[in-house]
Amino acid sequence: MPSKRQGPVLTYVQRKVARIRARDRREGFNGDVDEVVEDLEEHCEGLATKWKKSKQAVLHAVCSPGRVARKKRSVNLVNAACQVDGWLRGDKLEITEEERLQFEAIQTSLKELGGAEAAKGLLEDLQAFLIKKAEELRDTKQKGRSLSTKAIVQDVTATVRAITDELRALNQRTGVEGFMFFSKPDKKFNFPPQVVTTEKAHRFLIHGVKKIPADLLKEFELFVVGDIEGLVMNHNECLKDTKGRILKELKAGLFEITGKELIMQYENYLKLVNDHGVALRNWPKDVLFVNPSKISNMFQLKLLLEALTDTNATKRCQWYHLSEDDWKKKKEEFRESVKSKGPRKRTRIEIPDDSKEESHTEEERPVKKKKKTAKASDSDKENQCTTDLEKVKKKTKEAEKKETEKDKEKDKTKKIGKKKTVQKKKEINA
After folding, report:
1. How far is it, in rounded angstroms, from Cα 317 to Cα 246?
2. Which residues contact 231 (CB under 8 A, 6 or more apart)?
3. What are phi and psi of 318, to 5 degrees?
4. Where is the composition biased (Basic and acidic residues) (predicted)?
5. What is the DSSP letter of 120?
6. How far is CA 71 from CA 64, 209, 286, in A?
7. How many CB atoms lie within 10 A of CB 334?
8. Is-above-0.90 flag for pTM?
9. Which of 126, 180, 352, 381 is deepest in the core (most CB within 10 A)?
């Protein structure tokens, strides 16, 4: 076995794979030490031929003590002291007033000591505070919350490169197939879309989905960057989705800072500030401070959602703890607002006293309410129409009968008159 470490011949993934396989084979082996060594050497020869690397490099990766993963480096106190001016200018993460006072004290003490190189002469509390803030800054950079877009692009490219290596190594070890798409979230980021696929996944996209991965990747980027959810959802669904995301962000931020599941109040916002000593900042100027469920403008909702999910901590709309002086001012404002509104008027329902029998005059007697009749349905209306038609027909028949009777009476009178005239003529002739 080699005594000295070889150069960076193997990748991180290959070192990890070699060590895991060697450990599994060593644990499941029941032979002597020489047989274990021989078996490991044969195993390393197989991996070396597979990866086209030297046998010594694989043996060194398998047999070297310690962890394969990189250890977390400790923060250098001098480098942390050099960042004090950036913290005070606001170039780093957001700080409270108490932290600002501590940074100012560190700055004055460093000037007295002669610069950042003499940071070890600071008090232990100030040294611990500097190291803590430097670790927070490093963690935020590793998570991709850095203020500069350049650092985010570098983080994305390095992470995608590591994921491609992991996926290909996983495919070689286990035969697992898969594909992943990566796209920039906004136009300000300058990195092209990327796709990672295995052989069968690539064939599935071409023959199953019937699209070339490059064309599908362009459509995915257009969907993410162009914000064209309207192709999938209509306007009402987009409104509902964005409102739900906004309410979720506000509720999560309020729970994170207070530790209680509180209900966000907009009309009575000062009461929430008065009770818990928290407030919202960086609310968009173009958006009214009302419940997002009452906003129907998609542009305003997107402005509010972007402000709540902004990567820049100084520009993000978020909850924060008030200082004691600010909290006292808010409490006074709340008391003044309550005084200006005045007490609420209680509306009492007058209950009549039935025990007393009072004599009411005709003028004082209450007017009797008319009984409400049920509304007629369509079938009732049709029945009413039929009855009205029958009544009209009966009336017309009765009128016709009367007219016929009058005509008959007239005819009778005419006949009688003719008979009388004929008799008179006969009498005259005789």
Report:
1. 11
2. 223
3. -155, 165
4. 348-366, 375-414
5. G
6. 15, 43, 47
7. 18
8. no
9. 126
- For 314, residues 6+ apart whose C-beta sits below 8 A from its C-beta are 90, 94, 147
Identify any residues that bridge with 182 across adjacent strands, giving them in sequence order: 194
SS (H, E, C) 147-166: CCHHHHHHHHHHHHHHHHHH
Question: Does residue 63 contact residue 1 with C-beta atoms inside 8 Å?
Answer: yes
Element (H, E) at 181: strand 179-182
**Relative orientation angle of helices 12-27 and 149-174, to the nearest 10 degrees:** 40
Burial of 396 (0-12, 13-18, 19+ CB in 10 A): exposed
Residue owning tokens 């004290």 = 105
Please, what is the Cα angle at 123 between 117 and 127, to 5 degrees?
A: 60
Which residues fall within 8 angstroms of residue 162, CB to CB, at 6 or more apart?
12
**DSSP 8-state secondary structure symbol assigned to residue 279:** E
What's the length of the chain? 430
Handedness of CA 320, 325, 328, 333 (dihedral sign): negative
**pLDDT tens for the chain, residues 1 to 430:** 444 444 446 676 677 777 777 666 665 555 555 565 666 677 777 777 777 777 777 776 666 544 444 445 677 888 888 888 888 877 777 788 888 888 888 888 888 888 888 888 888 888 888 888 888 887 776 554 445 667 677 778 888 888 888 988 888 889 999 999 998 887 777 778 888 888 899 889 888 888 888 888 888 888 887 665 555 566 677 788 888 888 888 888 888 888 777 777 777 778 888 888 888 888 888 888 888 888 888 888 888 888 888 877 778 888 888 888 888 888 888 888 777 766 655 555 555 544 444 444 544 555 555 555 555 555 555 556 667 667 777 777 788 787 788 777 777 777 777 777 777 777 777 6
- CB of 257 within 8 A of CB of 249? no
